[in-house]
Amino acid sequence: MTTKLCVYPGTFDPIHLGHLDIVERALNIFETVVIAIAENPKKKPFFTLEERIEMVKNSVEKYSNRVVVEGFSGLLVDFMKRYDTKIIIRGVRLFTDFEYELQIAMTNYKLDKVETFFMMPQQELIHISSTIVKDVAIHGGDVSGMVTPFVKKMLEEKVKKICGK
After folding, report:
1. pLDDT tens digit string along 1-24?
2. What is the C-alpha separation between 146 and 6, in angstroms, rounded?
3. Which DSSP string do the residues of the chain spell out, in sequence order?
4. Any catalytic annotation for residue 43?
5. How far is CA 65 from CA 69, 116, 118, in A?
6. In b/e form, how buried is each residue of 70-95, taking b as 16+ CB within 10 angstroms?
7. Is 93 one of the annotated active-site residues of the chain?
8. Facing residues of 35 across strands?
9. Taken in order 105, 106, 110, 116, is the CA torsion positive or negative?
10. pLDDT tens digits along 101-151
11. In percent, how much of the chain has pLDDT > 70?
12. Is there a contact between 44 and 72 (Cβ–Cβ < 8 Å)?
């Protein structure tokens, strides 16, 4: 087992600047960050798993030698065995995030002694969530300060396709 690697799981529907801030912070501590993109059909993602993988890969290109991007389904603890790590990084913005994340962290620990480290994004990014990004995009708002230009373009295309806007 190694502590030089951590897993940053999520749906990333879509990835936003708050997520990227967490990746940068994790890279200050770990040599490698594996971004594990959950298929998670229960959440009914706006983007397909393939689209989310494409957006995340594009968003972390500058860290390509230190960041691995991979989709997965099933239990996160099973996915983590492939990388021989027991460390998860999770971003939390508000107390309500922490409450939910704590339940998941405790479950992962119970399942396989996996430790979860909680990180907060920079204050100017703390209000951003994937749900807010999608809502702003669907209603014709500018998401430039929330996502990368590539993700913004994919959002615009998806909104046009789904909503006809």
Report:
1. 446 999 999 999 999 999 999 999
2. 25
3. --SSEEEEEE--TT--HHHHHHHHHHHTT-SEEEEEEE--GGG--SS-HHHHHHHHHHHTGGGTTTEEEEEE-S-HHHHHHTTT--EEEEE--SHHHHHHHHHHHHHHHHHH--EEEEE---GGGTT--HHHHHHHHHTT---TTTS-HHHHHHHHHHHHHHH--
4. yes
5. 11, 24, 24
6. ebbeeebbebbeebebbbbbbbbeee
7. yes
8. 8, 69
9. positive
10. 899 999 999 999 999 999 999 999 999 999 999 999 999 999 999 999 999
11. 96
12. no
Which of 16, 57, 130, 152 does the annotation list as catalytic?
A: 130
Residue pointed to by tokens 């996915």: 79
Residue identified by tokens 């309500």 is 96
**Cβ–Cβ < 8 Å for 143, 152:** yes
129 in catalytic set: no
Alpha carbon 139 to its chain's center? 23
Catalytic residue among 43, 110, 127, 139: 43
* Token pair of 39 as six digits: 């298929």
Residue 90 bears catalytic tag: no
Out of 19, 52, 57, 158, pick the active-site residue.
Answer: 19
Is the overall model pTM greater than 0.90, yes or no? yes
Q: What is the pLDDT of residue 165?
A: 65
